Task: inverse folding
């Protein structure tokens, strides 16, 4: 076995050079995407990529400006609503993020991602009843996914909705029943730390 001191180490000047080139690459990519968005402002893909670059580089104010401009063009555009909610969440404003995503749930009630996001945001805010409502809605959209249905059954039990819990469990298709029973036999993920 080798002594830890015998492993090659990188000098801090090498690390600084790597960091500097990474920052430069990110800046170049942002500048390129800004030009592309300017040249083609209707491109959802380019807008989303630029917003993502702003987010990962910590430029929340720029992401916010871009999301607001997008929303002004089409207030009900799901991408614009998601972008605005992400900015609010990055700023630590869960209440606003939930309110924005709630609007998205109205626009796209059958979107499982929206239900997952809302459940997670409500859970993080300690609003377990509301989180559970979204988990139940999600189960309604994906009754073939044993894990999703199990989460809904557990939260229904935890929030004293035993009749709903029983209904969810009995309404599952026979092809999913075995997998659901296995999921329900597992310890609750929230109680495992």
Result:
């Amino acid at each position: 076995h080798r002594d830890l001191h015998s492993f090659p180490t990188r000098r801090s000047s090498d690390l600084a050079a790597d960091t500097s080139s990474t920052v430069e690459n990110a800046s170049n990519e942002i500048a390129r995407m800004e030009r592309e968005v300017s040249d083609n402002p209707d491109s959802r893909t380019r807008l989303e990529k630029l917003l993502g670059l702003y987010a990962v580089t910590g430029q929340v104010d720029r992401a916010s400006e871009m999301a607001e401009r997008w929303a002004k063009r089409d207030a009900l555009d799901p991408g614009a609503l998601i972008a605005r909610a992400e900015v609010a969440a990055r700023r630590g404003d869960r209440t606003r993020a939930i309110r924005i995503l709630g609007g998205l749930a109205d626009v796209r009630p059958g979107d499982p991602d929206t239900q997952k996001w809302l459940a997670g945001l409500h859970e993080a805010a300690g609003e377990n009843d509301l989180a559970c409502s979204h988990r139940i809605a999600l189960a309604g959209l994906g009754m073939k996914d044993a894990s999703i249905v199990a989460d809904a059954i557990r939260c229904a039990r935890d929030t004293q909705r035993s009749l709903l819990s029983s209904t969810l469990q009995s309404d599952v298709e026979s092809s999913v029943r075995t997998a659901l029973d296995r999921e329900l036999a597992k310890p609750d993920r929230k109680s495992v730390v």
The radius of gyration is 22 Å. The mean pLDDT is 83. The CA atoms of residues 120 and 126 lie 10 Å apart.
